[in-house]
Amino acid sequence: LPLESLSYPAHYAPYISNVVIPYGLVLDRIERMAEEISQDLQASCDPEEGLHAICVLKGGFKFFTDLTDRMQSKNCCHKSLKISSHFIRAKSYQNDQSTGSVSIMKLYDLEVLANKTVLVVEDIVDTGHTLSKLIEHLHQYKPKTIKVASLLLKRTPLHNGLFPDYVGFSVPNMFIVGYALDYNENFRDLKHICQISDEGKKKFANKPT
Ligand code: 5GP
Ligand code: MG
Ligand code: MG
Q1: Over 90: is that where the pLDDT of 207 sits?
Q2: Whose CA is nearest to atom 15 of ligand 1?
């Protein structure tokens, strides 16, 4: 990789301990995921209704855009997949710890999901708690099927057993930032997937309320 592609903004330099997955590698992996997911879903989706992709905000926005873009370009002459975009917000983290209670915020009407093929696009699955809540929430709209793509899956002994159908990378049990993943709303603008330094955790910590 050219050195430049591994550089990161000067304002974050002291707050990152290492690059876990460089941006270029993230995009390479997404390209292959797009191929796999398109192949699977082109076969099962009603062509008129297409795929209904749900971006889980905020952390999922970059993965959602890059994945759905590439899925579109996997369309070939005889088969194509129409993708509709939906947005929902899930929040549970304060600093680098889950608050234990996941809140799901419905931003737009999701009644349209009835009887549709749905793809939930998540940034990272840690304990699986957020994903369980999301899927439970989405069931009320009675979709035909719900598939889940997560860019990252954390290796944790605390996992609840609900795994995504598609995973980009398995990552160690550490706090990850960048590529839209945040630490108290910081680092979303960092291209590479990185590990935050202890200095970073201190610098951007939220004071207890
Ligand atoms: P879970 O509910 O599976 O324990 O955690 C999932 C959610 O917590 C993710 O969607 C993400 O918002 C947040 N999360 C979990 N681990 C990390 C991490 O290492 N970095 C960041 N930025 N968010 C995380
Ligand atoms: Mg998330
Ligand atoms: Mg977050």
Answers
A1: no
A2: 126
